[in-house]
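User: Here's a chain of 451 residues. Predict its fold as tokens.
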Amino acid sequence: MQAIVSEGALLTDPADCWPYGYDNSRRQGLPQAVALVTEHRQVRDLVQLCNDESLPLIARGRGTGTTGATVPLGGGLVVSFERMARILEIDPANRMCRAEPGVTNQALQDALAPHGFFWPPDPTSAATCTLGGNLAYNAAGPRAVKYGTPRENTLGLRAVTGAGEEIRTGVATTKGVVGYDLTRLIIGSEGTLALITEATLKLTPLPEAKRTLRADFRDIHAAARAVSAIMAQPTTPCALELMDGACLSLVRSYEDPGVDASVGALLMIEVDGPGHAIEETAQTVARAASVEGLLEIHSADSETEIARLWRVRKALSPALRNAAPKKINEDVVVPVSRIPELIARLERLSQARRVQIVSFGHGGNGNLHVNLLVDPDDPGQMRAAHDCLDALFDMVLELGGTLSGEHGVGLEKRDFVDREIDPPTLRLMHDIKRQFDPRNILNPGKTLPQA
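Assistant: Prediction complete.
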């Protein structure tokens, strides 16, 4: 391994390896070694070596994932892409760029902005999460409601399979149907099929104008109805974020959010588009949000007013950490029209199990972050929490939803996957895994339940 990577780029001391053994879940494992790669050739040669030796290999960005997908529970080699962070090409004429997996989402956006473009995926952790991690999890963020996820915004990949073979997938054009779509297959596979060493991304022009709205509602049910009404008309917002009453109560206990106590839920709404039409666009969405139970709609024109409206949303994360530092955070998705029913069932579940449940997230595509405010050090609370999770996943599937929208599966949801995916389909997925990774060295034990 030392012969493959640069001097000083192979860590073997346990004290140096421990920081690469955890992510944003509560799981941690000790890798036997960590390789800090800087180029494609090193990744290829490391995979070939690990394949020859049947040594587990786990790809890692910055460890912002929440499902344990990068935790090396069985030891092995962690390949860290933090030093493989170059933007290789920006091509405005063809609306594309090429970048390595270690570049952070924010660094990519900052490099694209002077050219008048952006890459739509925008996770909350953009300042620290990497392009490779965004692709591995298909992690999106608020803008996905209008612009889609990494799968819709990636043209092609350069990668190394578990057998150590170099492959290129996709095209450098916005249209192309030759061969199977391996690009979309690898995106979201959490490093179990291949290691991405380069991505060709589809860019979107920055909008001329943007308008921010905050709609205050009497309760979460009114807010959920407004989400359905907004998404049923032609004007699609570029962000549609939902916060329930429990969120607002937590924020009020942490700091003054500037929201009246009568507000039981709210929507943060952003629209973008041509400057000459932005006012009409905002008014169209505001009319759609005017359902029974709406209290008031606030509009922001200046940066100061925008910051004021977003203050309540930005205060939520620290308020949650303050209330329950070790909370359980699940991200589930249901059809937008079923959000009101999911909210109602979550309220009943919270009362029945005596577990405080706080929900917020990307209302425009039905992707809710369901937070269970429990203490993992309390066995009684954890038993109740696991009962809640079991019931939550069942109700999401009953409503026609899916168990994860952007956080991925990793270890946390692996054993629930067979509730969503039928046995023949799972067998096919295991067959695909064996074709890409015949010795099962790439992130073994993650994403798919045991065959």
